[in-house]
Design a protein that fits this description.
Layout (H helix, E strand, L loop, with lengths): L6 H10 L14 H11 L5 H10 L5 H14 L12 H4 L8 H7 L6 H4 L11 H11 L13 H16 L9 H5 L9 H15 L8
Helix pairs in contact: 2-3, 3-9, 4-11, 8-9
Length: 213
């Protein structure tokens, strides 16, 4: 998908008022209805999970949606955090002063970029390049104000953008969690938990068969 093909999502972002934090109600989708759907599915039902599910549903479906939600649940510790955990020493791993090779991969060019562009959002988006590209698509100054990605409404749209742009084309089988994890975390950290969360969402989304009389 080219950047210009993502324009409908950009327009929808503005129309639905997510930048202002209006949330699901702005789309005519009641938060209670989204929450009821998640409860029925017996998966994480938190305000952040509701928001993400509501934003993603028009663009991601079926097994792919189950994988998306499972990956996000893992990255956010069951939707409890939108910021990468770690101190200054940890974020040196992304900094051009201390790890120039990794910094180049992420587009980090200035001292301090490692912590400045640490993982944020539902998929822990990392690196100056990703912040810039997402900001351009969503028409938000994320490169200048990276902490904006900690806002659940912005984080939800950023996660959908990242999935469609960086993950979807690299995955041939969304039932394969290892394959789906690699574009998000090349080291496959937490693979077992990711697999378990995907399985939970996949089972929850499976249509219930009605017995024939």
């Amino acid at each position: 998908m080219r950047l210009e093909e993502f324009a409908p999502l950009d327009e929808d972002l503005s129309r639905r008022g997510f930048i202002q934090g209006i949330g699901a109600a702005a789309a005519g989708v009641g938060a209670d209805a989204v929450g009821a759907e998640l409860k029925k599915m017996k998966v994480s039902d938190t305000p952040n999970a509701r928001l993400l599910y509501d934003v993603a549903k028009p663009y991601i479906h079926g097994t792919e949606l189950a994988q998306f939600m499972g990956q996000c649940a893992h990255e956010t510790a069951n939707f409890t955090t939108l910021v990468e955990l770690g101190g200054p020493e940890h974020f040196k791993n992304y900094d051009p002063q201390f790890n120039p090779r990794k910094a180049r991969e992420l587009g980090n060019t200035e001292p301090g970029d490692g912590e400045r562009y640490k993982g944020r959002g539902f998929l822990q988006v990392t690196g100056r390049d990703n912040y810039r590209r997402i900001g351009q698509s969503l028409k938000l100054p994320l490169e200048a104000n990276p902490a904006m990605l900690e806002r659940p409404n912005v984080a939800a749209w950023a996660a959908v953008w990242f999935w469609i742009k960086q993950v979807r084309d690299r995955v041939h089988n969304f039932g394969n969690t290892k394959q789906a994890t690699r574009p998000i975390n090349p080291g496959l950290r937490g693979l077992k938990d990711r697999e378990q969360k995907f399985a939970s969402y996949k089972a929850a989304m499976k249509p219930v068969k009605v017995a024939q009389r």
